[in-house]
Design goal:
The chain is α+β, with helices and mostly antiparallel strands. The protein is built from three helices and seven strands; from the N terminus they run H-H-H-E-E-E-E-E-E-E.
Length: about 160
Amino acid sequence: MSPSPLQFNRGVSFVEIIIATSIIILIITGIVSAYSFWINEHRVSTDRVVNAMLLEEGVEAVRSIRDRNWSELATLSTSDTHYLSFATTTSTWSITTEPEWIDSSYKRWFEVRDVERDGNDMITESGGTVDPNTKKVTVYATWNNTSGTTTREVSSYFANLFEN
């Protein structure tokens, strides 16, 4: 006589419980790790986007100052760091010497350099004549992250288009 199927089914063995628990723990660990990675990448991506926008806004702010009054930009020291400030009451940008944290996480500043031109009126790095109607502006934006401080920059040439 053969044993009935009920005789072999005595319940779940200890080994099966350990294997099932291990699989569940591995799945949960994978999900938590993926979520943690996604959150970190989202934060880093957000910082990069905000930084790019701050750089673009900085260039546009300097352009606004140039359009309003060339001499305000042209007379800036080429050896100093300059900061931007927006006056909400007059809706205008101004240049300041005081650093300002933006959203408590980002800092932006800019530097102005003289532009030299060669005999063919082409911009040259050195050995040319200083062009009083052109300036090179480099805008920097920085933020702190888990791996340290990250700084990005963008440069643009500004000319005295309106001769003001």
